[in-house]
Every structure is written in structure tokens, then in C-alpha cells.
Amino acid sequence: MMVVQALLAGVFQVVQMALLLLLAPGLTGLVRVIKARLLGRRGPPLVQPYLDLLRLLKKEVVLAENASWLFRTTPYLVFTAIWLAAALVPTFSTALALTATADLIALVALLASARFFLALAGMDVGTSFGGLGSSREMMIATLAEPAMLMVIFSVAILVRTTSLSLIVDFMLSGGVGLRVSLALALISLLMVAIAENGRVPIDNPATHLELTMVHEAMVLEYSGRHLALIEAAGMMKLVLYMALIACIFLPWGIAAPNDGPVELLIGLVTFVLKLVAGAVLLAMFETGIAKMRVFRYGEFLGGALLLSLLGAIFLYVSTGL
Amino acid sequence: MLDYLASVGLRAENHRPYPRFDLSREAWAELVTTLAAKDDWSLLGLWADTAIVHMALRDEAAMTVGVVSLSCPEGRFPSVAGVRPGAIRLERTIQDLFGICAESLVDPRPWLDHDSWPIRLPLSADPPDPLGQPEPYPFLPVEGPGLHQIPVGPVHAGIIEPGHFRFTCNGETVVRLEQRLGYVHKGTEWLMAGRSIAEAGKLAARVSGDSTVAHSWAFAGAVEAAVGAPVPPRAVWLRALMAELERLANHLGDIGAICNDASFAFMLAECGLLREKVLRTADACFGHRLMMDRIVPGGVAVDLPAEGRDAILGLVRDIAVAFPPLVRIYDEKASLQDRTVGTGRVDGGLVNRFGAGGHVGRASGRGLDARLGPGYAPYDELEFSVPVFTEGDVNARVWVRIREVEASLSLVQQILDKLPEGPVHVPVVPMAGQGMALVESFRGEIMTWVAVREDGIVTRCHPRDPSWFQWPLLEAAIEGNIVADFPLCNKSFNCSYSGHDL
């Protein structure tokens, strides 16, 4: 029995990783299509991000003369780290092979390493835009990471674990009830997700203005398959955050370890529906707001940190640990 | 001012409609000293002929315009840049194109000439070969701890005109911006010299594509003044109609584009839709979306068709319905206001010193409009007001545009109501003379000066785009702001690269 379960967990893990790889460009495409529709434009076809990635993969890589090994290896590191991080988040089933070995803290660490290498690569070639983007990205990161960790602590205090699968099980068990702390944590996590994914109002993924870019400025020197990997990692990150928010706060539909194929199918369908809902909400939010000044990032993410901190304190007081 | 100019100079013949005075070297030098004390005599233009320098001045109190000329056979003239900073780049351009040297010019570096043309001093009597070894352009030195430079352009990430911007920053804060322009120099003045009026008119229409109507009108007005040609009344009114449609289209596009630079794409989509309606109506009525080459010396090239009146009235109605809700959204969107209010402030005193017109001037309290002063037909028979704000920030420049859109809608209606019948074109009979015209484009006033030979050949033409006096102010506007706000400031200015680089 144990062997079968372990085998199944392995299979599910592989299916999940393939699923994320497959869905990520589609989600980005969906957000773009909805945004275009909201503006009264027809917008690019849903498959455009897939085609873009294929085109980039076929193109040759143009490297700056002074690009070091760091610049060349970073795209692979970043893509792997984010793909691995995404693999940790239960999407359709909690029976994942990596659950036992990696938790939320590991997920944050993987994301942080990806950003660390990307920021280094941004400065590697020595162009002013790379440095500009890296410095802005790190400014955002220093504010977003503590907020993210506080959210994790809130949840961990409540559930007494940092393992995502156990969190999902706990949330589904119905023993949580309605908690102010979780609401605060959700808002905080949403703000962090917006910042981490470089969405409006923090960064504009569609801008052509090099001076306002954050993420785009950092990767301005990349081309060909390197760029394809970085873009794919960015798309994967969006799926990751949506899946993370869904699995902690809206875990309904996710199959438990011993569930049958029907539950698994329900898990898959609800996951896709959750992504679509997330895309609609994200597009509506982005259409309704202008980008904020660079120096306002601190206020925005400081707010996120404050909310998550309040959530943790409330929880601490109410549960009386 | 004209009395003073008449007392120091000799009135030249055949220069219409504003008088021109030939000055001696001493009188020119004296005028420069006088200018220092006369703040309301603003610089309208400074340009050269083979061995003559011309300067157009406007007395803002009396609303009179006069031109002074200095013959400089030794190839040097006393610089006016010390008292009129707007002249600095014009004098550097004269040095680059004519080899006429401005004495004691504060900034003698080359401007338009990047030493990449096949000849040097293209408009001088005997153009020498290029140096072949272009030296690196010496940017102004900036010193201080923790400063770093960000070079931007001339090729940008978006599809816009080329220009180089050298930012010196302390972290995100801009300490200094220095522009380098000239990348789209097309040799327009060189191409115009020696061409027929019709050919030169086509070139004038292409000085800056977004203000092609205003540039064509300024050229046509200057030629008509030079040869004393009459313009049929209907043509005069049709010109104003086209000019207001052009203003509408550009302001609508700008309002959307400014909001889009704050990543608020909704306004770009909605304003873009309205702009497109204007362009399609222009296409339906005049056969060209931008109405290029529709204004020609002697009148207009195409008459407004019978159904055109209703099409334009329908357009005005559409915009009058769709525009106010957009203005409300702009005004009530806190996240958008947070970006535009207080950003890129230009001091009113600076605007006056540079003589900047258009939305840049009007947002900082300088309310001059060539349609009112010195004024030209048919605007003397139309009712409109010129919006003036004093904040000088991006928000004020947006509001100037919003108010001008409303004014233009009313103007279009008035023009259609009063549009007289009759012919729209009278062939121009060539005659020797010099003429100039001031026409208000959507950016500000265009000054075009032209010299025509008796056989109808344009010997010299100088179209001065309003951007000449606005570009330097952008350097001032961004100081103390953050780098990421530059695109917003730049778009709120929306200066022409092409019109400036000629």
C-alpha cells in the first residue's frame, strides 16, 4: 500500500510539473486577452505566449562581450528554481512526492535564490538599465519577502505546520472557521503577489518605457532561449502565486491522498477554474489602476508587511500560545 | 519696440507683414543690451541666410512683431543667448549649418551636426568636407559623491523618434538631464532652398508630421505675405477648420498617451478611439487622415464636400458626449492624479525666459497664443478662450489640453456655421519678397520665414517649430524628480524631434 501511494505521489508530482509548464503561458495569455477586452481591443490570441516562447527558443542568443558565466547560467537556474518552487504547491492533489521534503520556507528560499541570481545577472553586463532594474527589484524584494514570511508564520501558527499539503488538509477539515488573521494574511499575500509578479501598480509588464521598468530592465540584455527561459519562469511564477493563494485560502476541490480518479478530475477542473477566476480578477484590477511612483513601493509593501504582522499578532493573542 | 527698432535700424523693403530692419553691428550689440532690460520682448526666432543673421522679436505688451537683420561678412555676430537663453541652441545650429559664429556664446559645442553628414556647414557658401574623425560629444561635467549616469537613446525600447538623454542621478533622483538631439536632421532647409514654391510647400508639410497642417499653413502664410497673394475667404476658414481638427486629434492622442505612461491604459484606448474618429473624418472630408498637403499657398487643395459638414458636426457631437466622462475619470482616479500632480514642475519665470508657448507655456502661466496675438484670420471672428494654469506640472499640461479640446470643439462648430461659399484656391503670382507667418500649432506657435525670388523660387525658408523653446525646459522639469517619472514628463511636453532637428 505504501509503495503504491509513493508511486502515485511520484506520478502526480510529474503530472503537476507538466501541467504547470503547459498552463503557465496560457494563463499569461488569458490575462492579456481579458485586459485587451476590457479596453475594447481584440487583443492577441490566447496562444500568443506559447508562440512567443517557441520563437524565442528558435532564435540565436546574443551575448554581450563581457558577459560572464553567471549571465549565461542564470536563466537555467531561475527557471529551474521557480519550476521547482511551483511543484511544491498542491494544485489538484495533496499527494505530491515533494511534500515530505519541502515546505513553504523552502518555497520562499527557492524564489529568493531565483531573484538573487537574476539581480546579479542584471548587473553582470554593466549596462545602466540592468543595474537600475536590479536595484529596484531588490528594493521590492527586501520589503516583499518579510511580508511573505509573516503570512507563512500566521498560517503556521494556526496549522502548526509549514507543509503545504498539511495546510490544505487542515483548511479542508473545516476546523478553521472564519478568522480575521487569515483575511489579513490573504490581503497581504495578494499585495506581495502583485509586487513579486511585477504587475500594475508596482511594475508594468507591457511597458516600452525603459526608464520605468523593473523586471524588464533587469532582463533587457537577454535574448533567444535565455529570454525564453526567463519569460517562461515569469509566467510560471504567476501560476505559482495563484496556486499558492488558492491552496491556502480556497483549497476546495483539491484531492486528498487516497481519493479516486473522480476526485482527481474534480481537482484538475477546479484548479483550472481558479486560475481563470484569478486571471479575470487580476486583469480587472490592473485595468482600473495606474502605476505608482517608485518611492511609493515602500508604502505599498510596508502595508502588506503591517497587515501580515497584525494577522500574526491577532492569532498569537487569540490562540494564546 | 518697433519704434526702437526703427530708430536703430534701416527699414527693409519687401518684408511683410511685419517690418524688418537692417542693423549695423553696433546697433545689434546695443539691441542685445537693451533686450536684457526688456523682459517682455520675447525671442520668436533666430536664423541665418548665407551671410546674414535674422532675429524675430515680439513685444508682448503691444503684440507687435519685428525682425532685425545683421549682415556678417566676417562670419561672426554678437550672441544674444546671454539675454535670451532660448537662442543658445539656435545659435549652435547656425554655427553648424552656416559656419556663422556667435561671439561669446556660452555653449559653443556643435548641436545638430554629429559629423556624420557627407558635408559640413551645408548652408554656407562653400561647404567643406567632413572631419571624418568625430570626437566624442563632450557632455557637461557633473561632480559629486554617489552620482551615476544613465545614458538613454537615441534608440529607445518603444517606437518613438530618436534622441539621446544623459541622466545624472543620485539613486533614483535625477540631478541633471542633458539632451542631445539632431539624429533626425533631414536637411529640410537645405532641400527647400532653390525649389519652387509648390515643392518647398511639400517639404514644409513634412517638417513634423503631427503638425503638418499648422506647418503648411505657416509656410503658405509666409509665401502669401512675401508675394502679396490674396487668399479666398472660404480657404481661410477651411484652413482654420483643418487646424482645429489637427489640434483635436493631437490633444486627444496626448491625453491618452500621458495616462498610458502612468500605466493607465484605459485612457489610451478610449482617447485613441476618439482620435481615430477625428482622423477618419479628416480622411473622409479632405482625403488624407493627417490632412497633409491640403493647405497650399493661395488657398487649400481640396474643398469640403457637401456631406463633409454633417460628418464633422457628427464627430463634434460624438466627442462632446464621450469626452466629459473621460475627463471625470482622469480627475477622479486617485492613483493617476498621484502620478501627474506635482510631477515635472516648470517655473513660470523659466517659461517666460525661454519664450515657450503652447501647453508648456500655458501650464506655467504664460498664456500667449498666436491665434490671438498678433492674431490672424479667421480667428478674429471666432470666440474662444486660451486656458492658462499656473501649477506648471504634468497635471496642468493635461488640463491645458483638456480645455483646448473643448475650445476646439466649439471652434469647429463656429467655423462650420460661418463658413463662406466661394472658390478655395487662387494661383500664386510669383514676385520677389520676404514674408513670415505665425501659426498656432497644437504644440505652440510656429514661425515660418521665407524669401522668394521674382521667378517663384524659394531662396531661403526657415520653419521654427515650437519645440525649440520647449525642449530646454524639459531638462529643467525633470530636475529633482525620479528617473521613472521622466517618460511621464516627456510625454506631457511631447516635443517634436523632427520639427526641431529639421
TrEMBL record, chain A:
Membrane topology recorded in Swiss-Prot or TrEMBL: Multi-pass membrane protein
Keyword Transmembrane helix tagged: yes
Transmembrane helix listed as a keyword: yes
Superkingdom: Bacteria
Single GO MF descriptor: lyase activity
Record's keyword terms, sorted: Lyase, Membrane, Transmembrane, Transmembrane helix
Compartmental location: Membrane
Transmembrane stretches, start-end: 6-31, 76-98, 104-126, 138-159, 171-195, 238-258, 264-285, 297-317
GO cellular component, one term: plasma membrane
Pfam families in the cross-refs: NADHdh
Main location: membrane
Protein's recorded name: Formate hydrogenlyase
Gene: hycC
From TrEMBL, chain B:
Domain of life: Bacteria
Residue ranges constituting the NADH:ubiquinone oxidoreductase 30kDa subunit domain according to the UniProt record: 60-126
Residues binding Mg(2+), per UniProt: 189
Keywords from the UniProt entry: Magnesium, Metal-binding, NAD, Oxidoreductase
Protein's recorded name: Hydrogenase expression protein HypE
Gene Ontology MF terms: NAD binding; NADH dehydrogenase (ubiquinone) activity; nickel cation binding; oxidoreductase activity, acting on NAD(P)H; quinone binding
Domain NADH-quinone oxidoreductase subunit D: start-end pairs: 274-426
Pfam families with a match to the protein in the record: Complex1_30kDa, Complex1_49kDa, NiFeSe_Hases
InterPro entries reported in the protein's UniProt record: ComplexI_49kDa-like (IPR052197), NADH_Q_OxRdtase_suD (IPR001135), NADH_quin_OxRdtase_su_C/D-like (IPR037232), NADH_UbQ_OxRdtase_30kDa_su (IPR001268), Ni-dep_hyd_lsu (IPR001501), NiFe-Hase_large (IPR029014)
